[in-house]
Amino acid sequence: MRKSLLFVMILTLATFGIVFGTTIHVLVWDDVMSQAVQTLIPQFEQTTGINVVFERVPSGNPILTKEAVGVTPTQSSYDLIALDEPFVPKFASAGLILNYNDWPQGNVYKKIDLNSGIILPTVFDAAKFAGNIWGMPINGNLYVWMTNELMLENPTYQKEFKAQYGYDLQVPQNFTQLLDMAKFFHDKGLYGFAPFTLRAEGSTCEAVWMFSSFGTGIIGLENGKYVVTLNKEDAIKAMQYYSQLLQYSPPGANSMGHPERIAAFSSGKVFTMFQWPALIPNSENPNDSMVAGKIAFSVPPAGPAATASVRGCWVLAIPSASKNKAAAAEFAYWWASKDVQQKLASMGMASVREDVLMNPDLIAKYPWYKAMAESMNYAVSRPRFVDYAELSNIVQKYWLAGVTGTMKPEDAVNSMIQEINNLLKTYNG
């Protein structure tokens, strides 16, 4: 019987261009999700007959260096690589990765249709560049809004806020309410908001969130050339608004990273802020957090022009030079399958599938999943550019200068536009 099943598997794999016993090399970022995926790989190998060498590397420069060295137009050390979504344009424009339209259909695990709604279009956009999709987004990573229910449900605060502002204290629905509530709690000796202000990628994300909420992008493609799309007036308003939020934030607000934000919110003294899904469990741990079990999760408050939730997905991409494209696609489809995504979600990992995030049993255990699914409708991306690292560096520099007061917002915006234009000239020829 086992021999018969083995023969059927070999025959089926051969039909789809996969040689039984094929070994694929997969390069991914190293975190709790990739570690969890690795524990499930034996199931994939047993089901498909495909062997997997699964290499985990720290995100940032370590994985980018591996990818830059190991993936060329003519040869590749890997059959599947994980790209942080802002770096999709760099690999796509150089012809290093395969257009999703050209991915094989799959054998045991089927290709996900872009129009099926299983993965929302705003999530698939993480793999988008120049009108095409270049891979499979694999973790539903985007801003989720958190509000401290201990402060929100306090009867005294509710009464005093209503008397002062004329409407109910609630999860902030828009930027006017957010600022009102931030000021109200600051006047009580507490803090309304916890920012991200380190010179790091998180500050670029904050800038994108604010700029998008005020109705402006940063760069775009017009007639095949990159152009600055940053509207000066909107960008200045965004900086001025964020500067106001900083006034109602904890001490050290001008140099806060993730550890400081987590500590501040978990102390119970911060009313509201965004968080990435992977970091939310820090504030839901009753051993470390005063607000565990008392957090309201929602979409971000609406800005003057839009509601924006910054997305930060990893994208599985197949190198154009891979000799095992069909087997690599099979592995990507397996990872994105409902069964695997559900197993990962049951361990607290962010899913890309709406049918998993909206599972009532999972929401009962991880209440932020519902907010993630809803926030995906408002997902916005960081700028799509082949030299994203340098562009992000410019945005960080002048965003922080404008919001912390080391430059006037007007001067910071003008300098940002000037330096971005200089960068774009290099790529526009």
Structure description:
Helices cover 46% and strands 14% of the residues. The protein has 429 residues and is of the alpha/beta class. Helix 2 links the parallel strand 1 (23-29) and strand 2 (51-57). The protein contains 19 helices and 15 strands. Helix 10 (232-247) packs across helix 19 and helix 18 (388-404) packs antiparallel against helix 19.
Shape: globular
Judged by helices, strands and strand pairing, the structural class is: alpha/beta
Look at the structure and give the mean pLDDT. Answer: 94
Supply the number of structural domains.
2
Roughly how many Å apart are the termini?
A: 64 Å
DSSP summary, beta strand count: 15
Number of separate helices: 19
- The radius of gyration computed from the alpha-carbon positions, rounded to a whole number of angstroms, is 23 Å
CATH class of the largest domain: Alpha Beta
Beta-strand content estimate: 5-15%
The assigned CATH architecture of the largest domain is 3-Layer(aba) Sandwich
Helix content: 40-55%
List the helices and strands and how they pair.
Blueprint: H1 2-15, E1 23-29, H2 32-48, E2 51-57, H3 61-70, E3 80-84, H4 88-93, H5 121-124, E4 128-129, E5 132-133, E6 136-137, E7 144-148, H6 149-152, H7 155-165, H8 175-187, E8 191-193, H9 201-213, E9 219-222, E10 225-228, H10 232-247, H11 258-266, E11 270-275, H12 280-283, E12 295-298, E13 309-310, E14 314-317, H13 325-336, H14 338-345, H15 354-357, H16 360-365, H17 368-375, E15 379-380, H18 388-404, H19 409-428
Parallel strand pairs: 1-2, 1-3, 8-11, 13-15
Antiparallel strand pairs: 3-14, 4-5, 6-14, 7-11, 7-12, 9-10
Helix pairs in contact: 9-10, 9-18, 10-18, 10-19, 18-19
